[in-house]
Amino acid sequence: MAKKAHQMIGVSVAILASMIAAHAQQYIPDNEPMGITASINQSQQIYISWSPPATSTNIVGYYLYRTGGLIANTAATYYMDVPPPGIYFYTVAAHDAAGNAFPQSSASPLVTFIMDRTPPSTPADISAIPSSSSTMLSWSPSTDDVGVIGYYIYRNGIKITTPNAITGTSYTDSGLSSGNAYTYSVLAYDAAGNISASPPLIRVTTIYDITPPSVPSGLSATATSPAEIDLVWKPSTDNIQVGGYNVYRDGSLIASVATTSYMDNGVSPQTSYTYSVAAYDTSDNVSLRSVVMQATTSAHDSAAPSVPARIAAMPISSSEVDLSWQPSSDNIAVEGFYVYQDGARIGSTASTTYAVSGLATSTTYQFVVTAYDAAGNVSPPTSAAAKTLSFVPAPGADPTMNGISPSSATIVSPSGLPPATGTVFFTATLSIGMRHNDVKKLQSFLIRKGYLAQDSATGYFGAFTQKAVQKFQCDQGIVCSGSPRTSGWGSVGSRTRKALNALYGTGQ
Predict the structure, then answer these.
(1) What CA–CA distance (Å, rounded) separates 429 from 423?
(2) CA end-to-end span of the chain
Protein backbone atom coordinates (compact mmCIF):
# COMPACT_ATOMS: atom_id res chain seq x y z
CA MET A 1 0.00 0.00 0.00
CA ALA A 2 2.81 2.41 0.96
CA LYS A 3 4.61 1.51 -2.31
CA LYS A 4 1.48 2.26 -4.33
CA ALA A 5 1.03 5.63 -2.57
CA HIS A 6 4.65 6.47 -3.31
CA GLN A 7 4.15 5.64 -6.99
CA MET A 8 0.99 7.80 -7.13
CA ILE A 9 2.87 10.81 -5.64
CA GLY A 10 5.62 10.28 -8.22
CA VAL A 11 3.09 10.27 -11.07
CA SER A 12 1.43 13.40 -9.63
CA VAL A 13 4.72 15.21 -9.46
CA ALA A 14 5.49 14.29 -13.07
CA ILE A 15 2.06 15.53 -14.20
CA LEU A 16 2.48 18.77 -12.27
CA ALA A 17 5.93 19.31 -13.75
CA SER A 18 4.61 18.84 -17.29
CA MET A 19 1.76 21.28 -16.62
CA ILE A 20 4.21 23.87 -15.28
CA ALA A 21 6.43 23.42 -18.32
CA ALA A 22 3.43 23.87 -20.60
CA HIS A 23 2.54 27.14 -18.86
CA ALA A 24 6.13 28.35 -19.05
CA GLN A 25 6.12 27.93 -22.87
CA GLN A 26 3.06 30.14 -23.30
CA TYR A 27 3.32 33.67 -24.61
CA ILE A 28 2.73 36.26 -21.85
CA PRO A 29 0.17 38.78 -23.09
CA ASP A 30 -0.15 42.28 -21.63
CA ASN A 31 -3.20 41.35 -19.51
CA GLU A 32 -1.62 38.30 -17.86
CA PRO A 33 -0.46 38.57 -14.18
CA MET A 34 3.28 38.18 -13.71
CA GLY A 35 5.80 36.96 -11.14
CA ILE A 36 3.57 34.56 -9.21
CA THR A 37 5.26 32.99 -6.17
CA ALA A 38 4.10 30.56 -3.47
CA SER A 39 5.78 29.67 -0.17
CA ILE A 40 4.90 28.47 3.33
CA ASN A 41 4.90 31.26 5.92
CA GLN A 42 5.51 31.13 9.68
CA SER A 43 1.82 30.59 10.37
CA GLN A 44 1.83 27.33 8.39
CA GLN A 45 -0.07 28.80 5.44
CA ILE A 46 0.81 28.92 1.76
CA TYR A 47 1.34 32.58 0.85
CA ILE A 48 0.75 33.30 -2.86
CA SER A 49 1.51 36.68 -4.44
CA TRP A 50 1.78 38.11 -7.97
CA SER A 51 2.19 41.35 -9.87
CA PRO A 52 -0.59 43.00 -11.88
CA PRO A 53 -0.54 42.65 -15.68
CA ALA A 54 1.36 45.18 -17.73
CA THR A 55 -2.00 46.40 -19.02
CA SER A 56 -4.54 46.62 -16.20
CA THR A 57 -7.37 48.43 -17.99
CA ASN A 58 -10.80 46.96 -17.11
CA ILE A 59 -9.28 44.56 -14.56
CA VAL A 60 -11.25 44.46 -11.28
CA GLY A 61 -10.02 41.21 -9.71
CA TYR A 62 -8.23 37.89 -10.01
CA TYR A 63 -9.20 34.20 -10.19
CA LEU A 64 -6.71 32.04 -8.27
CA TYR A 65 -6.22 28.38 -9.25
CA ARG A 66 -4.61 25.64 -7.17
CA THR A 67 -3.20 22.93 -9.48
CA GLY A 68 -5.79 23.87 -12.12
CA GLY A 69 -8.80 24.20 -9.77
CA LEU A 70 -10.36 27.58 -8.98
CA ILE A 71 -10.06 28.34 -5.25
CA ALA A 72 -10.57 32.09 -4.87
CA ASN A 73 -11.73 35.36 -6.44
CA THR A 74 -9.85 38.31 -4.91
CA ALA A 75 -9.20 41.97 -5.66
CA ALA A 76 -5.79 41.81 -3.96
CA THR A 77 -2.56 40.56 -5.48
CA TYR A 78 -1.93 38.02 -2.71
CA TYR A 79 -3.74 35.14 -1.01
CA MET A 80 -3.13 32.80 1.94
CA ASP A 81 -4.17 29.19 1.34
CA VAL A 82 -4.46 26.31 3.82
CA PRO A 83 -5.03 23.21 1.65
CA PRO A 84 -4.90 19.57 2.67
CA PRO A 85 -1.40 18.05 2.76
CA GLY A 86 -0.01 17.63 -0.73
CA ILE A 87 2.10 19.09 -3.55
CA TYR A 88 0.66 22.11 -5.36
CA PHE A 89 1.30 24.85 -7.88
CA TYR A 90 -0.75 28.01 -8.43
CA THR A 91 -1.84 30.14 -11.39
CA VAL A 92 -3.83 33.35 -11.49
CA ALA A 93 -5.97 35.07 -14.13
CA ALA A 94 -7.25 38.62 -14.20
CA HIS A 95 -10.92 39.29 -14.91
CA ASP A 96 -13.10 42.27 -15.79
CA ALA A 97 -16.27 43.59 -14.14
CA ALA A 98 -18.43 41.13 -16.09
CA GLY A 99 -16.41 38.18 -14.79
CA ASN A 100 -14.67 37.49 -18.08
CA ALA A 101 -11.25 35.93 -17.43
CA PHE A 102 -8.08 36.88 -19.24
CA PRO A 103 -5.33 34.26 -19.84
CA GLN A 104 -3.86 32.53 -16.80
CA SER A 105 -0.36 33.35 -15.62
CA SER A 106 2.54 30.95 -15.73
CA ALA A 107 2.63 28.51 -12.79
CA SER A 108 4.28 29.13 -9.46
CA PRO A 109 7.02 26.84 -8.17
CA LEU A 110 5.83 23.58 -6.61
CA VAL A 111 4.95 23.77 -2.91
CA THR A 112 4.93 20.71 -0.66
CA PHE A 113 2.44 21.37 2.14
CA ILE A 114 2.49 19.16 5.21
CA MET A 115 0.10 20.16 7.98
CA ASP A 116 1.74 20.57 11.42
CA ARG A 117 -0.31 18.50 13.84
CA THR A 118 2.30 18.11 16.60
CA PRO A 119 1.60 20.23 19.71
CA PRO A 120 4.41 21.79 21.77
CA SER A 121 5.60 20.09 24.94
CA THR A 122 3.82 20.87 28.21
CA PRO A 123 5.34 23.83 30.13
CA ALA A 124 7.20 22.53 33.19
CA ASP A 125 8.55 23.86 36.49
CA ILE A 126 5.69 26.31 36.94
CA SER A 127 6.12 28.46 40.04
CA ALA A 128 4.10 31.30 41.54
CA ILE A 129 5.01 34.17 43.88
CA PRO A 130 1.92 35.89 45.29
CA SER A 131 1.58 39.38 46.74
CA SER A 132 -1.51 41.01 48.18
CA SER A 133 -2.88 41.98 44.74
CA SER A 134 -0.91 40.01 42.13
CA THR A 135 0.80 36.72 41.33
CA MET A 136 4.03 36.38 39.36
CA LEU A 137 4.13 33.12 37.36
CA SER A 138 7.23 31.61 35.73
CA TRP A 139 7.94 28.34 33.91
CA SER A 140 10.48 26.48 31.78
CA PRO A 141 10.17 26.96 27.98
CA SER A 142 8.30 24.39 25.89
CA THR A 143 9.68 22.79 22.73
CA ASP A 144 8.04 22.12 19.35
CA ASP A 145 8.93 20.37 16.07
CA VAL A 146 8.47 23.68 14.21
CA GLY A 147 8.48 26.41 16.83
CA VAL A 148 6.63 27.64 19.92
CA ILE A 149 4.81 30.91 19.24
CA GLY A 150 3.61 31.75 22.75
CA TYR A 151 1.74 30.74 25.88
CA TYR A 152 -1.84 30.93 27.15
CA ILE A 153 -2.47 31.60 30.86
CA TYR A 154 -5.67 30.33 32.47
CA ARG A 155 -6.92 31.68 35.81
CA ASN A 156 -9.66 29.60 37.45
CA GLY A 157 -10.19 27.85 34.09
CA ILE A 158 -10.66 31.06 32.08
CA LYS A 159 -8.03 32.24 29.60
CA ILE A 160 -6.55 35.60 30.55
CA THR A 161 -6.84 38.14 27.74
CA THR A 162 -3.69 40.21 27.22
CA PRO A 163 -3.04 43.16 24.84
CA ASN A 164 -0.03 41.34 23.38
CA ALA A 165 0.89 37.69 23.01
CA ILE A 166 2.80 36.18 25.94
CA THR A 167 6.06 35.06 24.33
CA GLY A 168 8.33 34.93 27.38
CA THR A 169 8.36 32.44 30.24
CA SER A 170 6.93 34.69 32.95
CA TYR A 171 3.75 36.65 33.56
CA THR A 172 2.42 38.81 36.40
CA ASP A 173 -1.33 38.58 36.95
CA SER A 174 -2.43 41.85 38.56
CA GLY A 175 -5.65 43.25 39.98
CA LEU A 176 -6.31 40.35 42.35
CA SER A 177 -8.07 40.52 45.70
CA SER A 178 -6.18 40.25 48.96
CA GLY A 179 -6.43 36.87 50.69
CA ASN A 180 -8.19 35.08 47.79
CA ALA A 181 -7.29 31.68 46.29
CA TYR A 182 -6.67 31.26 42.53
CA THR A 183 -5.73 28.33 40.26
CA TYR A 184 -3.45 28.72 37.23
CA SER A 185 -2.36 26.67 34.23
CA VAL A 186 0.05 27.50 31.42
CA LEU A 187 -0.28 26.07 27.89
CA ALA A 188 2.09 26.49 24.93
CA TYR A 189 0.91 26.88 21.32
CA ASP A 190 2.58 26.84 17.87
CA ALA A 191 1.94 28.61 14.56
CA ALA A 192 -0.43 25.89 13.36
CA GLY A 193 -2.65 26.43 16.40
CA ASN A 194 -1.59 23.23 18.16
CA ILE A 195 -1.83 23.61 21.94
CA SER A 196 0.18 21.64 24.48
CA ALA A 197 -1.33 19.42 27.11
CA SER A 198 -2.30 21.19 30.31
CA PRO A 199 0.13 20.83 33.23
CA PRO A 200 -1.15 20.18 36.75
CA LEU A 201 -3.03 23.18 38.13
CA ILE A 202 -1.10 25.37 40.53
CA ARG A 203 -3.01 26.90 43.44
CA VAL A 204 -2.08 30.32 44.84
CA THR A 205 -3.52 32.39 47.67
CA THR A 206 -2.76 36.11 47.65
CA ILE A 207 -1.46 37.63 50.86
CA TYR A 208 -4.15 38.89 53.18
CA ASP A 209 -3.22 42.52 53.80
CA ILE A 210 -5.25 44.79 56.06
CA THR A 211 -2.31 46.81 57.41
CA PRO A 212 -2.16 50.39 56.10
CA PRO A 213 1.17 52.15 55.47
CA SER A 214 2.67 54.48 58.06
CA VAL A 215 1.52 58.10 58.12
CA PRO A 216 3.67 60.33 55.86
CA SER A 217 5.87 62.68 57.90
CA GLY A 218 7.91 65.80 57.27
CA LEU A 219 5.37 67.47 54.99
CA SER A 220 6.37 70.94 53.82
CA ALA A 221 4.42 73.34 51.61
CA THR A 222 6.24 76.18 49.86
CA ALA A 223 4.66 78.82 47.62
CA THR A 224 7.17 79.13 44.78
CA SER A 225 5.14 81.57 42.68
CA PRO A 226 1.73 83.26 42.66
CA ALA A 227 0.38 80.18 40.83
CA GLU A 228 2.30 77.26 42.36
CA ILE A 229 2.81 75.57 45.74
CA ASP A 230 5.39 72.76 46.01
CA LEU A 231 4.87 69.89 48.48
CA VAL A 232 7.56 67.51 49.77
CA TRP A 233 7.32 64.75 52.41
CA LYS A 234 9.22 61.74 53.72
CA PRO A 235 8.34 58.24 52.41
CA SER A 236 5.99 55.93 54.31
CA THR A 237 6.64 52.26 55.07
CA ASP A 238 4.33 49.23 54.69
CA ASN A 239 4.34 45.55 55.63
CA ILE A 240 4.23 44.67 51.91
CA GLN A 241 4.58 47.66 49.59
CA VAL A 242 3.57 51.32 49.48
CA GLY A 243 1.59 51.98 46.32
CA GLY A 244 1.54 55.78 46.37
CA TYR A 245 0.21 58.88 48.08
CA ASN A 246 -3.04 60.82 48.08
CA VAL A 247 -2.64 64.60 48.18
CA TYR A 248 -5.37 66.73 49.79
CA ARG A 249 -5.87 70.49 49.44
CA ASP A 250 -8.24 72.09 51.93
CA GLY A 251 -9.48 68.60 52.80
CA SER A 252 -10.30 67.48 49.22
CA LEU A 253 -8.32 64.93 47.20
CA ILE A 254 -6.53 66.66 44.31
CA ALA A 255 -3.98 64.04 43.17
CA SER A 256 -2.53 60.55 43.64
CA VAL A 257 1.21 60.25 43.01
CA ALA A 258 3.88 57.55 43.28
CA THR A 259 6.62 59.97 44.42
CA THR A 260 7.11 61.95 47.63
CA SER A 261 6.61 65.37 46.06
CA TYR A 262 3.89 67.25 44.23
CA MET A 263 3.64 70.62 42.45
CA ASP A 264 0.18 72.13 42.85
CA ASN A 265 -0.45 74.44 39.90
CA GLY A 266 -4.16 74.86 40.54
CA VAL A 267 -3.83 77.73 43.03
CA SER A 268 -4.55 81.46 42.83
CA PRO A 269 -2.41 84.47 43.80
CA GLN A 270 -2.65 85.91 47.34
CA THR A 271 -4.55 82.88 48.69
CA SER A 272 -3.88 80.55 51.64
CA TYR A 273 -4.25 76.78 51.29
CA THR A 274 -3.91 73.81 53.65
CA TYR A 275 -2.40 70.47 52.62
CA SER A 276 -2.15 66.94 53.96
CA VAL A 277 -0.93 63.62 52.52
CA ALA A 278 -1.97 59.97 53.08
CA ALA A 279 -0.15 56.82 51.89
CA TYR A 280 -1.84 53.79 50.34
CA ASP A 281 -0.55 50.25 49.62
CA THR A 282 -1.10 47.76 46.81
CA SER A 283 -4.15 46.37 48.65
CA ASP A 284 -5.73 49.85 48.78
CA ASN A 285 -5.20 50.20 52.53
CA VAL A 286 -4.89 53.94 53.25
CA SER A 287 -2.98 55.50 56.12
CA LEU A 288 -4.16 58.33 58.32
CA ARG A 289 -3.48 61.76 56.89
CA SER A 290 -0.33 63.65 57.75
CA VAL A 291 -0.21 66.84 59.77
CA VAL A 292 -1.78 69.78 57.94
CA MET A 293 0.56 72.38 56.47
CA GLN A 294 -0.42 75.83 55.22
CA ALA A 295 1.04 77.94 52.42
CA THR A 296 0.05 81.32 51.01
CA THR A 297 0.74 82.32 47.44
CA SER A 298 2.17 85.74 46.71
CA ALA A 299 0.51 88.45 44.68
CA HIS A 300 0.67 88.14 40.92
CA ASP A 301 4.07 89.40 39.83
CA SER A 302 3.79 91.90 37.03
CA ALA A 303 6.78 94.05 38.01
CA ALA A 304 9.82 93.78 35.78
CA PRO A 305 13.37 93.90 37.16
CA SER A 306 15.34 97.14 36.96
CA VAL A 307 17.49 97.94 33.95
CA PRO A 308 21.00 96.40 34.16
CA ALA A 309 23.26 99.42 34.78
CA ARG A 310 26.75 100.39 33.63
CA ILE A 311 27.02 97.87 30.83
CA ALA A 312 30.51 97.60 29.35
CA ALA A 313 31.53 95.85 26.14
CA MET A 314 35.29 95.20 26.05
CA PRO A 315 36.96 93.74 22.91
CA ILE A 316 39.34 91.03 24.11
CA SER A 317 40.61 89.66 20.81
CA SER A 318 39.85 89.63 17.12
CA SER A 319 36.93 87.26 17.79
CA GLU A 320 35.75 87.96 21.35
CA VAL A 321 34.00 90.71 23.29
CA ASP A 322 33.45 90.47 27.06
CA LEU A 323 30.30 92.04 28.48
CA SER A 324 29.76 93.11 32.07
CA TRP A 325 27.06 95.08 33.90
CA GLN A 326 25.73 95.89 37.36
CA PRO A 327 23.13 93.59 38.97
CA SER A 328 19.42 94.38 38.55
CA SER A 329 16.87 94.40 41.36
CA ASP A 330 13.34 92.98 41.47
CA ASN A 331 10.32 93.02 43.80
CA ILE A 332 10.77 89.23 44.25
CA ALA A 333 14.01 88.03 42.67
CA VAL A 334 16.00 88.41 39.46
CA GLU A 335 16.18 85.08 37.66
CA GLY A 336 18.86 86.02 35.12
CA PHE A 337 19.82 88.11 32.11
CA TYR A 338 19.18 87.74 28.37
CA VAL A 339 22.04 88.73 26.05
CA TYR A 340 21.39 89.94 22.48
CA GLN A 341 23.79 90.53 19.60
CA ASP A 342 22.60 92.74 16.74
CA GLY A 343 18.97 92.15 17.71
CA ALA A 344 19.15 88.34 18.08
CA ARG A 345 19.23 86.66 21.47
CA ILE A 346 22.43 84.64 21.81
CA GLY A 347 22.19 83.37 25.37
CA SER A 348 21.27 83.90 28.99
CA THR A 349 23.22 83.92 32.24
CA ALA A 350 22.63 84.19 35.95
CA SER A 351 25.85 86.19 36.42
CA THR A 352 26.63 89.78 35.43
CA THR A 353 29.24 88.87 32.82
CA TYR A 354 29.07 87.19 29.43
CA ALA A 355 31.82 86.32 26.93
CA VAL A 356 30.74 86.60 23.29
CA SER A 357 33.05 84.59 21.03
CA GLY A 358 33.13 83.50 17.39
CA LEU A 359 32.92 87.09 16.11
CA ALA A 360 34.39 88.51 12.91
CA THR A 361 37.67 90.43 12.97
CA SER A 362 37.55 94.25 13.14
CA THR A 363 33.74 94.31 13.14
CA THR A 364 31.41 96.48 15.19
CA TYR A 365 28.59 94.74 17.07
CA GLN A 366 25.67 96.07 19.10
CA PHE A 367 24.97 94.23 22.35
CA VAL A 368 21.83 94.43 24.50
CA VAL A 369 21.21 93.00 27.98
CA THR A 370 17.83 92.65 29.75
CA ALA A 371 17.01 91.21 33.17
CA TYR A 372 14.15 88.78 33.74
CA ASP A 373 12.40 87.27 36.76
CA ALA A 374 10.70 83.92 37.47
CA ALA A 375 7.33 85.26 36.32
CA GLY A 376 8.74 86.05 32.89
CA ASN A 377 8.80 89.83 33.38
CA VAL A 378 11.64 91.42 31.39
CA SER A 379 13.35 94.73 32.15
CA PRO A 380 13.92 97.50 29.60
CA PRO A 381 17.14 96.94 27.66
CA THR A 382 20.58 98.41 28.16
CA SER A 383 23.03 98.43 25.28
CA ALA A 384 26.65 98.93 24.32
CA ALA A 385 28.64 98.67 21.11
CA ALA A 386 32.11 97.24 20.61
CA LYS A 387 34.46 96.59 17.69
CA THR A 388 36.55 93.43 17.70
CA LEU A 389 40.31 93.84 17.40
CA SER A 390 42.14 93.53 14.10
CA PHE A 391 45.03 91.68 15.81
CA VAL A 392 45.71 89.13 18.54
CA PRO A 393 47.08 90.98 21.62
CA ALA A 394 50.52 89.97 22.86
CA PRO A 395 50.68 88.55 26.39
CA GLY A 396 50.24 91.39 28.87
CA ALA A 397 49.12 93.86 26.21
CA ASP A 398 46.24 96.26 26.68
CA PRO A 399 43.73 95.48 23.89
CA THR A 400 43.34 99.23 23.23
CA MET A 401 47.06 99.82 22.54
CA ASN A 402 46.96 98.76 18.86
CA GLY A 403 49.06 95.69 19.54
CA ILE A 404 51.98 97.50 21.21
CA SER A 405 53.10 95.53 24.24
CA PRO A 406 53.82 97.50 27.43
CA SER A 407 57.27 97.43 29.02
CA SER A 408 58.36 94.31 30.80
CA ALA A 409 56.33 93.52 33.88
CA THR A 410 59.42 92.23 35.73
CA ILE A 411 59.73 93.96 39.11
CA VAL A 412 63.26 95.07 40.08
CA SER A 413 64.24 97.06 43.17
CA PRO A 414 66.24 100.31 42.79
CA SER A 415 69.43 98.46 43.72
CA GLY A 416 68.88 95.87 41.05
CA LEU A 417 68.54 93.15 43.68
CA PRO A 418 65.47 90.95 44.03
CA PRO A 419 62.75 92.68 46.01
CA ALA A 420 62.87 92.17 49.75
CA THR A 421 60.34 90.05 51.56
CA GLY A 422 57.25 92.10 52.39
CA THR A 423 57.47 94.28 49.27
CA VAL A 424 54.00 95.53 48.28
CA PHE A 425 53.30 94.83 44.62
CA PHE A 426 49.49 94.97 44.69
CA THR A 427 47.83 98.01 46.25
CA ALA A 428 44.46 98.31 44.49
CA THR A 429 41.21 96.47 45.03
CA LEU A 430 40.52 94.73 41.70
CA SER A 431 37.22 93.44 40.33
CA ILE A 432 35.65 92.49 37.04
CA GLY A 433 35.40 95.26 34.44
CA MET A 434 38.53 97.13 35.67
CA ARG A 435 41.67 98.16 33.79
CA HIS A 436 44.67 98.85 36.03
CA ASN A 437 48.42 98.27 36.16
CA ASP A 438 47.82 95.84 39.00
CA VAL A 439 45.60 93.82 36.64
CA LYS A 440 48.56 93.28 34.33
CA LYS A 441 50.72 92.11 37.24
CA LEU A 442 47.87 89.92 38.46
CA GLN A 443 47.46 88.24 35.06
CA SER A 444 51.24 87.71 34.78
CA PHE A 445 51.19 85.95 38.16
CA LEU A 446 48.10 83.86 37.32
CA ILE A 447 49.68 82.71 34.04
CA ARG A 448 52.86 81.71 35.88
CA LYS A 449 50.78 79.70 38.38
CA GLY A 450 48.81 77.98 35.60
CA TYR A 451 45.46 79.57 36.49
CA LEU A 452 45.14 81.71 33.35
CA ALA A 453 45.79 81.09 29.66
CA GLN A 454 48.57 83.13 28.02
CA ASP A 455 46.25 84.77 25.49
CA SER A 456 43.97 86.07 28.27
CA ALA A 457 46.59 88.52 29.61
CA THR A 458 45.04 91.68 28.18
CA GLY A 459 45.28 94.07 31.09
CA TYR A 460 41.49 93.95 31.40
CA PHE A 461 39.85 92.15 34.36
CA GLY A 462 37.40 89.99 32.43
CA ALA A 463 35.44 86.79 33.10
CA PHE A 464 38.46 84.52 32.56
CA THR A 465 40.57 86.51 35.00
CA GLN A 466 37.75 86.37 37.56
CA LYS A 467 37.60 82.57 37.29
CA ALA A 468 41.40 82.33 37.69
CA VAL A 469 41.25 84.52 40.83
CA GLN A 470 38.50 82.30 42.27
CA LYS A 471 40.67 79.21 41.77
CA PHE A 472 43.68 80.93 43.40
CA GLN A 473 41.59 82.08 46.38
CA CYS A 474 40.22 78.59 46.91
CA ASP A 475 43.67 76.97 46.67
CA GLN A 476 45.03 79.47 49.19
CA GLY A 477 42.16 78.81 51.61
CA ILE A 478 40.93 82.41 51.37
CA VAL A 479 37.38 81.84 50.08
CA CYS A 480 35.72 79.19 47.90
CA SER A 481 32.09 80.28 47.58
CA GLY A 482 29.77 83.23 47.44
CA SER A 483 30.07 86.20 45.10
CA PRO A 484 32.47 89.15 44.69
CA ARG A 485 30.01 91.37 46.52
CA THR A 486 29.11 89.06 49.44
CA SER A 487 32.32 87.11 50.14
CA GLY A 488 34.94 88.62 47.85
CA TRP A 489 35.22 85.43 45.81
CA GLY A 490 36.48 86.47 42.38
CA SER A 491 37.72 89.96 43.35
CA VAL A 492 41.07 91.06 44.80
CA GLY A 493 40.54 92.47 48.29
CA SER A 494 42.90 92.88 51.25
CA ARG A 495 43.25 89.16 52.07
CA THR A 496 43.88 88.24 48.45
CA ARG A 497 46.36 91.12 48.01
CA LYS A 498 48.26 89.89 51.07
CA ALA A 499 48.60 86.40 49.54
CA LEU A 500 49.60 87.84 46.15
CA ASN A 501 52.22 90.16 47.69
CA ALA A 502 53.70 87.22 49.64
CA LEU A 503 54.12 85.11 46.49
CA TYR A 504 54.51 87.47 43.53
CA GLY A 505 58.22 88.38 43.90
CA THR A 506 59.36 84.98 45.14
CA GLY A 507 58.93 83.07 41.92
CA GLN A 508 56.59 80.61 43.61
Answers:
(1) 17
(2) 108
